[in-house]
Design a protein that fits this description.
Elements: H1 3-9, E1 16-17, E2 20-21, H2 22-25, H3 29-38, E3 45-46, H4 48-57, H5 64-74, E4 82-83, H6 84-90
Antiparallel strand pairs: 1-2, 3-4
Helix pairs in contact: 4-5
Length: 101
Amino acid sequence: MTKAFLSLMLGGALMIAGGLPVAAQQPDASGDKAFATLDGDKDGKLSLAEFGKLFDMEGKKATDQEKQNEFKAWDANADGSVSKTEFSANYSPAPPKQPKQ
């Protein structure tokens, strides 16, 4: 899955712009909250199963293969888990919804 596809697929909820992590530019407490919510066993890292829940949490449909591909992209050191640092480097919360006028 390409970075552009993920950004479009998730409606901007997770963005990697031009290879530069958006969330890493400015610390964001919502990223910490999202990570803590996903880290079900509280071991400080996300398994593929835990990471896959991010798509559900954001209300986005993704195949198992798409989730696995994105997991591998976020797992920068290829240790089989996404650390809080890796998560923070890639996660950006969805922009607030605009009220209908």
